[in-house]
Amino acid sequence: MKPPFLYLPPTDPVTVLYRDDDLLFVDKPAGLLSVPGRLPEHKDSLLNRLQADDPEVRLVHRLDMDTSGVMVFARTAAAQRALNRHFETRQAAKTYIAEIAGHPKAEFGTIDAPLMKDWPNRPLQKIDPAGKPSRTDWRVLRRLDRTTLVELTPLTGRSHQLRLHMAHMGHAIVGDRFYAVPDLAESSPRLHLHASLLTCDLPSSGTPYTATAPCTFAREFTYP
User: Fold this and answer.
1) d(Cα 205, Cα 72) in Å, to the nearest integer?
2) pTM to 2 decimals?
3) What is residue 223's predicted lDDT score, i.e. its pLDDT?
4) In the annotation, is 176 catalytic?
C-alpha cells in the first residue's frame, strides 16, 4: 500500500485554451484534482474552480491528479451529452507526452495488457489476464541521456493505463509515485505525463477541433 500524500494543489490561474458557447478547453496543471475528492481537504479541484466563474460548466472526462494537460468541459447539457457520446465511442483523440526511464530498444510499438483494480492497494491498478482489455500505442520522440520522451496514444481509457503500461514495458514514467522504483519516483516533484493534444467535434458545427497545451517538462520539444 502506498503512503498517503499531502494534497497541496497549485494556486496559479487555470489557462483557458479555447471557449465557445458549448464547451471549454483548459490546461490542467499537475497536482490539481479534476473533480472534488471525498475528504474535506480534497474539495479544491479544477471543476470547482471553473464553476466558480461559470456555474454552467459540466464535467465530460478526467485526468489523474498527477497528470497535466488538455481537458474539455461542456457549458450546456446538450453539449455534455454530445461530448459524452464522443468519448464513449472513442471518437475523441487524445495524445500524451511522457518522459520515461531508460531507452526502449524499438522506436514504436503497442502495449496490449489488460488492467484491473488492485483492491488491497487502492487506488492502484494491476495487469491481470482477467482485467479489462487495455491498449496503448507509443513512439519515441527524442532520446535523452538517461531518459526518453515518448508520444503515447491510449486506444482504451482505463485508469492509470499509461502509467502502468510504461512500467510494464520496463520504462516507468519519471516521477511516478505509484509504479516507478523509489529513486525514479522521487527524481521529480511531478509526474512527467502530459495530455498534449485533444481532438473532438465542436457540438455546434460537428467540426473537429484540436486543443494543444505546451509540455512544461519538455519545453525544448515541439511537434514537427
Assistant:
1) 16
2) 0.93
3) 40
4) no
**Annotated catalytic residue, options 12, 44, 64, 118:** 64
Grid cell, residue 147, equals 531518459
Q: Is the pLDDT confidence value at 224 over 70?
A: no
pLDDT digits over 159-189, tens only?
999 999 999 999 999 999 999 999 998 999 9
Note if the bond before 182 is cis, omega within 30 degrees. Answer: no
Q: Is the pLDDT of residue 3 over 80?
A: no
pLDDT, average across residues 18-45: 95
* Distance of alpha carbon 149 from alpha carbon 82, whole angstroms: 34
| Of 93, 28, 14, 99, residue with least CA distance to 66 | 28
**Dihedral pair phi/psi, residue 52, rounded to 5°:** -65, -30
List CB contacts of 37: < 8 A, sequence separation 6 or more.
7, 43, 45
